[in-house]
Structure formats: structure tokens, C-alpha cells
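Regression test case RT-17, inverse folding.

Input:
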């Protein structure tokens, strides 16, 4: 039975999926806008550090204020309404909630939320992919040990790439490469929240209208988010990562099967079976027509002449050899699509993407020369950006994962362009996020 039909049946039976949301910012608001239009789902509680901001976002997306005045989670459960609170623990520990959607964008807090949810028998859809990037394999293991499902969020690009990879492999195609698009020029890695909008392609007025966070959007632009998301994809699918970071080859949709081939065959890949990100800009800054900037793609190979001929007979666009074909979705709709993950974990017990091993990492890299006494400000900030690398390389170098580079004091000089190592900073070793990472490093790369 389709997910939608199962949701309708849950609605008819009066047994909706009961959801708790942590973080009602931009992504959370997009999901909130779809809940009233989705059968069989009851948003029982929202936890946000600013309940007033959460209410403002609910009003922004069209919720009836009367539906958000429940005095407690118990009364919200009984009356079909929604309780808003600052207390995230009350949401993840309430026995009536089935699925927790972690939407804070704060990776260190997200680890706390995920682990507590697992301990109380809740499935988790983790929108905060930054946390998955430094600890996803272990979060997946701990969820499985607790008998619950941990999942990446559909609508965000990693889960959608995982879906395309699964399509390919289920159909019998070997995956040559998979990834997403991005607007990229090399100097964007130096971008800061002060310079982001001009490079990103929005006016400050558009950003303010949308309630967009400049630091968050700068993490998209400066390469941090593409590296984070590529890490999540590699760890979930088993695809390899470039040995020295993403290459961002420029290509139109039409040209993706040309560039996502091995170097030996005229492409850019070190080998078959890798993640990569396609740039929507030529090296001189010209915009590429019909780009994949906001989309996802997978390149597959025809292993026999018969399959190659089928590509030709059905006008599939391939590389000149006729062997490499790219399937793509040119757009993704972010939080508007996360309901697919909620339904999948609750109704099928299946994640929409989850780490199966530790193969990739994203390491904090200096945007400028860093001096002792300075504080790292995490992804999208003024001090560091994220570089994708194989997990075993990161461990050997002692690289600090980008998701843990928040409010961390520098104790040794770090030159611009160099990765930040554990020896360069004074870490807070008391957080569960740090401890999760140390446990993962003790298990070693390739661990599941």
C-alpha cells in the first residue's frame, strides 16, 4: 500500500502518526506548512528556544492560532491540537509521540536530541545533517540498538540522492557517480555572512522577507553544506569521496554524463563509484544554461551492448560512448517534502537514507589565518569552511569535524587553507556530541 493510502487509513482509524518537532525555523516552517494538508499526521508538540518565534512562523505559514494553544502535551494529544514549549526534553520523552523531527540546525544540540529520543523509543528524522556528518554511523547504530529508526530527511538533498542511488542499484545499474548541484567558484570558500547574499543571488530584502539566516545560507555557498551533504551520502550509500576534496566540475544537465566519468575516459572522477558536486557556473563566472544548481543526480553505466542500445532506442541522453546515463531531479523542495520521511519511518520502518559505515568526513578548514585566542564559529561563519575527505584520512590527520567547530578556542596558529586539528583547539570534551565522535573514531573508519 502506498504511503498516502496508509496515511489516509491512519486518519480514518483515528490513529495518526504523532510527531514532535524540535526547531521551528525555516526548514521546520516549511514542514509545518504541509502538515495541515497531510492526512494521518498529528503534530503534538513543537519545542523551540523562542516559542513566540515559533508562533510567528506558524502564523506565517497559515496555521489557525487556536490550534496551538494547548496547555500541555497531554491536552494536545487528547484534543488534536499542538503544544508549544521551550522544553525539548518534554517532547522527546512523552510516551505518545512516535516520531521526532530534529530541525534545529545546531549539530551539538541535535546529538542530545537524537540520543534522548532513541532512549525513549522514538524514531528520528534528522534534518540537522551537520550532526550526521560527524556522527551518523554511530547514531544509526544506537538507533538500531534501541529498536527505532534513524533517518536523513527527504526534501534535503542527501536523502534524495540516496533515493536515486537506490533506484539505480535496484534496477541493476552500477552507480558511477551521484551528487547534487551547487553555485560554485573557488573563492566562495572565503565567503562570510556579510558577503553571502550578493554571491548567493538574493537581495538582502528577499532574504529578510523569507526569514533567511545569512550564516546558514553562507554555509551553502562556501562549500560547507555540499561537503556535509556529500559526507552523509557517501556514508549512507558506500560511494567513495575524492581524495582531496570536491572538484565542483562545471556542467549543464546535458553534460553531467560527460564529466562524471573516470579521468581515464575523459571525465573528472578518480574512479567509478564516487560522490561529486556539479557547479552551475563556468570558471569565469558565467551562468551555465539549464543547470542542476538546486537538484540531484545519479550517473549509471550500461554494462552490456544490449543495455547501451536500449539507452539509444529510448533517447536517453548519454555521454558520447553511449554507456553513461544520468537521471536527475532538477529541484528539491526542502522541508515541504520531509513528510515522506516521517511516513516512511513510522509506517514502513524504513529510513530515507541512513549511514551504513564511516567512509567520509568533513573537516574544518581555515578561511583566513587563525590566531590563538580566536573562536571558531562553525559552518557558514567567518573562520572556517568544510572540506570533504575520506574518513581514514581525516582520522590520520586529526581533523576537527566542522560540526564540532562551534565556539571553540584556537590555541595554535592555523594558516589559511589548512585544516584545523584537535591539537589546534581547546575542545569542550563534556558534550555528548564530542563523546559520540570520540567513540566513532575509536571504532575506526569504515565502521558501521
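Golden output:
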Amino acid at each position: 500500500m502506498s504511503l498516502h493510502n496508509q496515511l489516509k487509513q491512519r486518519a480514518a482509524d483515528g490513529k495518526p502518526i504523532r510527531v514532535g518537532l524540535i526547531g521551528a525555523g525555516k526548514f521546520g516552517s516549511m514542514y509545518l506548512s504541509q502538515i495541515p494538508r497531510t492526512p494521518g499526521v498529528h503534530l503534538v508538540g513543537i519545542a523551540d528556544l523562542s516559542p513566540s518565534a515559533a508562533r510567528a512562523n506558524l502564523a506565517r505559514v497559515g496555521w489557525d492560532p487556536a490550534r496551538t494553544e494547548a496547555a500541555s502535551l497531554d491536552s494536545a494529544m487528547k484534543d488534536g491540537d499542538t503544544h508549544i514549549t521551550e522544553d525539548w526534553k518534554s517532547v522527546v520523552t512523552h510516551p505518545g509521540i512516535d516520531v521526532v523531527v530534529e530541525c534545529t540546525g545546531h549539530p551539538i544540540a541535535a546529538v542530545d536530541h537524537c540520543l534522548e529520543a532513541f532512549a525513549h523509543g522514538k524514531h528520528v528524522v534528522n534534518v540537522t545533517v551537520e550532526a550526521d556528518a560527524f556522527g551518523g554511523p554511530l547514531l544509526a547504530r544506537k538507533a538500531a540498538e534501541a529498536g527505532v529508526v534513524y533517518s536523513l530527511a527527504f526534501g534535503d538533498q542527501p536523502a534524495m540522492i540516496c533515493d536515486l542511488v537506490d533506484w539505480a542499484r535496484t534496477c541493476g545499474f552500477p552507480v558511477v557517480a551521484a551528487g547534487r548541484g551547487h553555485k560554485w567558484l573557488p573563492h566562495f570558500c572565503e565567503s562570510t555572512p556579510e558577503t553571502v547574499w550578493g554571491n548567493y543571488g538574493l537581495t538582502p530584502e528577499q532574504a529578510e522577507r523569507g526569514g533567511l539566516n545569512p550564516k546558514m545560507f553562507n554555509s551553502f555557498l562556501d562549500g560547507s553544506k555540499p561537503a556535509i551533504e556529500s559526507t552523509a551520502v557517501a556514508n549512507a550509500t558506500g560511494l567513495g569521496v575524492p581524495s582531496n576534496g570536491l572538484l565542483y566540475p562545471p556542467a549543464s544537465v546535458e553534460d553531467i554524463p560527460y564529466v562524471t566519468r573516470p579521468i581515464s575516459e575523459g571525465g573528472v572522477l578518480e574512479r567509478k563509484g564516487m560522490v561529486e558536486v556539479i557547479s552551475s557556473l563556468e570558471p569565469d563566472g558565467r551562468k551555465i544554461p539549464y543547470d542542476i544548481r538546486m537538484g540531484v543526480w545519479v550517473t549509471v553505466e550500461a554494462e552490456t551492448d544490449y543495455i547501451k542500445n536500449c539507452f539509444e532506442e529510448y533517447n536517453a541522453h548519454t555521454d558520447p560512448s553511449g554507456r553513461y546515463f544520468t537521471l536527475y531531479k532538477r529541484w528539491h523542495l526542502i522541508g515541504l517534502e520531509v513528510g515522506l520521511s516521517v511516513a516512511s519511518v513510522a509506517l514502513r520502518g524504513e529510513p530515507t537514507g541512513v549511514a551504513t559505515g564511516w567512509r567520509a568526513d568533513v573537516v574544518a578548514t581555515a578561511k583566513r589565518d587563525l590566531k590563538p585566542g580566536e573562536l571558531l564559529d562553525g559552518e557558514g561563519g567567518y573562520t572556517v569552511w568544510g572540506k570533504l575527505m575520506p574518513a581514514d584520512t581525516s582520522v590520520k590527520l586529526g581533523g576537527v569535524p566542522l560540526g564540532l567547530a562551534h565556539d571553540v578556542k584556537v590555541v595554535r596558529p592555523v594558516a589559511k587553507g589548512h585544516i584545523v586539528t584537535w591539537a589546534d583547539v581547546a575542545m569542550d570534551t563534556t558534550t555528548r556530541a564530542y563523546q559520540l565522535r570520540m567513540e566513532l573514531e575509536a571504532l575506526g573508519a569504515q565502521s558501521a
